[in-house]
Amino acid sequence: QKEVEQDPGPLSVPEGAIVSLNCTYSNSAFQYFMWYRQYSRKGPELLMYTYSSGNKEDGRFTAQVDKSSKYISLFIRDSQPSDSATYLCAMSAINNNDMRFGAGTRLTVKP
Amino acid sequence: KAGVTQTPRYLIKTRGQQVTLSCSPISGHRSVSWYQQTPGQGLQFLFEYFSETQRNKGNFPGRFSGRQFSNSRSEMNVSTLELGDSALYLCASSPTGTANTEAFFGQGTRLTVV
Predict the structure, then answer these.
(1) Which of A29, A34, A44, B8 is deepest in the core (most CB within 10 A)?
(2) Which residues span the domain enclosing A16?
(3) If you average pLDDT over residues A58-80, what whole number do you get?
(4) Percent of chain A with pLDDT over 70
(5) Which of A41, A88, A96 sits opposite B43 (nearest CB)?
(6) Do B104 and A88 touch (CB under 8 A)?
(7) What is the DSSP letter of A66?
């Protein structure tokens, strides 16, 4: 079993839809939870991060962490074609730069 | 503010050769981490350097090594290349390296081993 599990998709939605992306993990030491977006032929771009449990909102994006269930989510509201990319969850323990990544979910938003 | 710069962007090498990849972090950032990205394994941590010292290491063979210079620039070396080393190699820089919430990635070096 991988330390971080993420459904690779692909996921295809119409423009304007709400997108839900999820990851589960097994290491209870993880305290930082990040979401990255990666366009084709580009490096990952940090979208949001959350420390420990809770929710965080940034514009159309909302990140949720449920440590009791070892489950994190990223919601994208009013999805746009420009949101089409691969979304990677990542997590790490405190004071540890060894980030563990999910496999990435490929999202396509159709106009 | 300039981002993380990786050179070269693309590289083709033959099995058995060695290769050196370079990463220039964002100005003021002292931590540089290296990752390997492949379709099968995804993103995997190689190692992290902070103030010229390797602070953390992933589960890769000794053929993979790195170093960091006093200006925080980092190089990664792979010796005796194998076909399975074909991948996108990414580096990420952060100011202090104590929180990955501030890690920024470069565009990567795509290495193809033939």
Answers:
(1) A44
(2) 4-110
(3) 96
(4) 100
(5) A88
(6) no
(7) E
CA distance B44 to chain A (A): 7
- Whether A98 sits inside 8 A of B56 (CB atoms) is yes
Asked if residues A99 and A34 have their Cβ atoms less than 8 Å apart, the reply is yes
> Could you identify the residue written with the tokens 């090498």?
B13
Q: Do the Cβ atoms of B100 and A34 come within 8 Å?
A: yes
CATH number of the domain enclosing A93: 2.60.40.10
Q: Search chain A and give the residue with CA nearest B38.
A: A103
| Token pair in block for residue B45 | 């941590």
pLDDT in tens, B2-55: 799 999 999 999 999 999 999 999 999 999 999 999 988 899 999 999 999 998
Q: Could you report the per-residue pLDDT of A30-62, keeping only the tens digit for each?
A: 999 999 999 998 999 999 989 888 899 999 999
Give chain A's domain count: 1
The beta strand positions in A26-83, using DSSP E, are 32-38, 45-51, 54-58, 61-66, 71-76
Site from A97, A101, A105, A106 to mutate, B interface, most B CB atoms within 10 angstroms: A97
pLDDT of residue A98: 83
